[in-house]
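During the first year of the project, the team set up a workflow for recording each protein of interest as an amino acid sequence followed immediately by a discrete structure-token representation. This format lets reviewers and collaborators read both layers of information side by side without switching files. As required by the reporting guidelines, we include two representative entries from the current panel. The first entry is reproduced here exactly as it appears in our internal archive.
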Amino acid sequence: MSSHKPLHSQSPAHSPVHPFDSIAPALTCRGGGSILKSLKGSLKILDSLGLRSLRKSLTKSINNVLSFFSFNPNEGLKEHNNKKTPSKNKIKSVHLTKSHPTTTRLGRIQSELKAFLKSPPPHICVTVGSNLSQWIIHLTFPPTTAYPNETYKLKITFPSDYPTSPPSCYFLKPTPAHEHVYTNGDICLSLLGSDWRPTMSAETLAVSIMSMLSSAGEKSRPMDNSAHAAAKPGGRQDNWVYHDDSC
């Protein structure tokens, strides 16, 4: 038979260990001693009154709040950053170990991938699965933009005549609300059409799109979005007419 007494009947000489003892340094290092004292005092009152269920409820509530914080000896309590960030670059190893002639289409794509991995652009990472000709680009926007800490995915597919023709490039859903981005994912960008040059790269497109969205003052949609929203994304933009402010 256990010799332990119920929590609420323990004598003052053997008072229960309070769950906040472990975070005492966090609460006191920045002048939060009074907070800790109040919390422990409240629990002691509940203990003395035998209100075990209420004490348990209060303990759970406060622990839920504390779960959003971490302790740093030099900074005290800091709120956890729970924003989702894109994972690191994920590349199927064969794309880096199997060599393709640099003069071929696959060789060009492989060279671009290695260059991207060697010096990745800020806030951008890439995932490449079994097909070297299809990339998923993750764009995570800084807090100062119209898309604070939001991450969107670009699907890039390299055509058979790449780099003579530009890649197919569009946003996967959910798509960012921007005056040059249709809800189906298509992007009104001249680099995907008449302004494409073989000297450009998938990284060029990703950085340009990142810059375009980062400079947006507000979230909006193209004026003709409703007419284009049902179209299959990623088609060639040979006949698109580009303007400074609209497509």
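The second entry, processed by the same pipeline in the following quarter, appears below.
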Amino acid sequence: MTSAMLSSIFFLKLAKDWSEIMKEWYNVESTMRTVAITTNLKRKLKILTLSFLALASGTMKYFVTSYCNIFVVEHFIIQLHHLVNVLGECKTVLGCLKEFYLRLYGQEFLIFDYALWKAFLIQLIMLRSTFSWTYVDVFIILISTAFVSRLKQLTNKVRILLKAKTKNPRVWKIIREEHYRLLKLCALLDDKLAYIILLSFATNLYFILVQWFGCMEHINSTVKKIYYILSFGLLGL
């Protein structure tokens, strides 16, 4: 929850500087018109966004004709693990829900007494926090991917010119200008995104340590094993 609150604050701060970033990015795109786009960057960014948000939030929805299929993954697998465990230990629906939420959010209910509406509220907050944590990572990935694509394109252009043994001073002047624009944009992004990147690093490091600690115990449940595999895979990405 703290991570979600901090990310909201940092993004509000970034929103004030967003016009400055976009202005500099526009200057880069205008200067680098001579550099051809060799990859379908737009489609790549969409695939990255959908993949990460689906894996982390726990639901991936897609439509095939008139049917909607829902795949439950990383975020809800651990909840499924607790639900399977409590189903055989309680007799009533309310009893199962209470045991389920006490296992899932035991630390929160050490602070205040259990109530079903409180459990639902905590679950909504946790889901929002999961989305917020993932959105920070996805945002950094998308910005980095778009920026790196331009660096690679400029590098490829330089290689082509070197291979062709181009000696035209005007051509190399344009290359220097394009490189200078990229350096300015890189410095600006580094300055404006520093706190968001630091938050992402700290959050991921925390979850890696938590997951590593959880893996130290003997795991008999197949569901929990799948959860740890997916969770570590997502954090590793």
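For the second entry, the following points were noted during internal review. Residues 58-73 have pLDDT under 50 and may be disordered. The helical segments are 2-31, 41-57, 74-87, 93-104, 116-163, 169-192, 194-215, 222-236. Both points are flagged for discussion at the upcoming steering committee meeting.
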